[in-house]
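Q: Hi! New to this. If I give you a protein sequence and the SMILES for zinc ion, can you show me the bound structure?
A: Yes, paste them in.
Q: Okay, here:
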Amino acid sequence: MPDPYEAPLPKPTPETRPYWDALRKHELHLQRCGACNEAYFYPRNFCPNCLSSDVAWFQASGRGRLHTFTIVHVTGPNPVLPVPYVLAMIELEEGPCLMSNLVGVEPDPSSLWCEMLVQIEYADVTEECTLARFRPVEGA
Amino acid sequence: MRASDLSREPELVLGKLQEGRGSVAIVGAAESDRVGKQPDKSALMLHAEGARNALADAGLSVSDVDAVMSTGRQTANEVPEYLGIRPRYLDNTQMGGCSFIAQLQHAMVVINAGVAEVVLITHGESGRSRVGMGARTVPSDSLGGQFEAPFGVGGPATRYTLAATRHMHEYGTTKDQLAEVAVATRKWATLNPRAAMRDPITIDDVKSSRMIAWPFNLLDCCLVTDGGGALVVTSAERARDMRQKPVYVLGTGEATHHNLISQMPRFHVWDAAVQAGQSAWEMSGATPADIDLAMLYDAFTIVPILALEALGFCESGEGGAFVEGQRTAPGGALPMNTNGGGLSYTHSGIMGCISSSRR
Ligand SMILES: [Zn+2]
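A: Thanks. Here is the predicted structure of the protein with zinc ion bound:
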């Protein structure tokens, strides 16, 4: 990891702050709707499926599947990881999809496949910010 | 107005858009004087160049224009002032590369509603030279700044690849099939003297070009150029007496399903294009079999493949096979992007239907 970390950092907003605060404690928190039972991402103070305000945070397992990905070879001046790196969409066990990086694997198309099982890895990129990255499940 | 008029029940008017077939026409269409690399022109200059050329093409002056539609960083607020137009209707739609096509439908709506008679749609973008474009930043507290930028979304090549990879997984689409699109499009570009890239290429050339973001090599990606263009749209009635033979608008459609790529509902299906296509087919009464020429957005080689499926030129998952054998090249069954497209002709970052109308 470059020191200091110069890649883009998120700046939390009121509705997303609990998500980022949980990541700093190395927990992945998502929201679920009490009215329609749908879990969703990114954070909002209402359910994007049915617009109910009856939503609550819960701790997710951090397990999921690699839904789709790209192996980025060309970037701007401050890449998030050394190139080439894997930009990934992760489909979480609980349903929602989120963007992340896949680490702990060769950034090569022959080492990667859609639906590969993955698990969360907490990356403390600065004192204030932890990012949710993912790595392949061992032996899967 | 008498009191009795005010108390009258309002009449409900619905479903008019789908009756819009042929109700408006493009009567002027032009690009900037040049396209390609133009460090001597600001984005706003490119807007104005396209607009002046299109108005001249239509035989109209700025005083005839009563609606202005623009997009991009040079918005519909700046363009009228710059050109000395005082419109009574402005449209600032920003939905990326399809903004101008959507605005063609918006023009149909406002013309048929009697709000405007002559609509000027303009575009200008210094995509390559970045003159007068402002900084390209994603605010760190925006949704993209929080949930995409920290993972290295670096330009469109890192977004469309996510669709391409899933399409390959779902349907077995291959890199060779992607490359077919680039090769066919380049063949068209060799016929267009204004095109930036005119040397013929092979499938192997595409696959051996520099890796940008797997599965896209350099030649799977569109050019980044400077350019502008504009359309003049008016009612079919007024179009009959104008200088150019009118290009009647038979069908339009518009849809948006997500803003962030990470919120795309299905990566292997372009659902928004399915919806927009249904609208356009329904309005026009046409089917894919009626189409002699298709101009499908080609920011990357996967995009026309997704569009061919979404618009019903082939079944879902068959887009890769559809473009095999140079089917969309000169002499192929479905001529596609016959100006050389964004892949080989010009692509300022977001591009429209300007040169399509010129044909
Ligand atoms: Zn709900």
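A: Residues 20-133+225-248 of chain B form a domain with the Peroxisomal Thiolase; Chain A, domain 1 fold (CATH 3.40.47.10). Let me know if you'd like me to explain how to read the tokens.
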